[in-house]
Amino acid sequence: MQEKPVLYTYFRSSSAARVRIALNHKEIDYESRPVNLLLGEQKSEEYRALNPCETVPCVIIDGHTICQSTTILEYLEETCPQRPLLPKEPLQRAAVRAIVDAICSGIQPLQNLSVLQTLPESERAPYARNVITKGLGVVEKLLERTAGQFCVGNEVTLADCCLVPQLYNAHRYGVDITATPLIQAIEERANKLPAFRAAHWTRQPDCPDALKQD
Asked: Which stretches of the chain score pLDDT less than 70?
């Protein structure tokens, strides 16, 4: 990569956090450009020209614009092989992708901001809590087959990059993750790692000062 990648992000976006974690893990220096989803900046003409999906994350890397978090993660894995986030063994790679899909297709899209904004405000938290609780129950069952120190074995993978940000939303909406002990243990381990700590929503430049943590 010749120029520093540019990541369009939003501090509370779990999708953007997946990419922040991967970039940090691979020790890729990048520029962060916030897009305020609450203010609708993703719908601006300028941003839509960059990303017709009107979502974050979006990354400019190697002279190209790539949208959708899982696509970005796979691109990083294919082009930046240092500190890999996919195992070498095909069945383990499949296990990683199954967990990624369970989160990125089965949980997050059902409770993201665009969905919640269609509901009366009083219904948003209970709805999100129910969706996340059910989805994490599925992930916990998958982890019973694959988990070591992390989601698949003892090394950080793309599955961990996706699981931990989803737990930001779980905590936000009051999900009891003690009911999923494997998930809880993986989160505790991951949050001690520099790549995950630096990617946490409370440590992003666009996080309001009142919510920031050191």
From this structure: 1-2
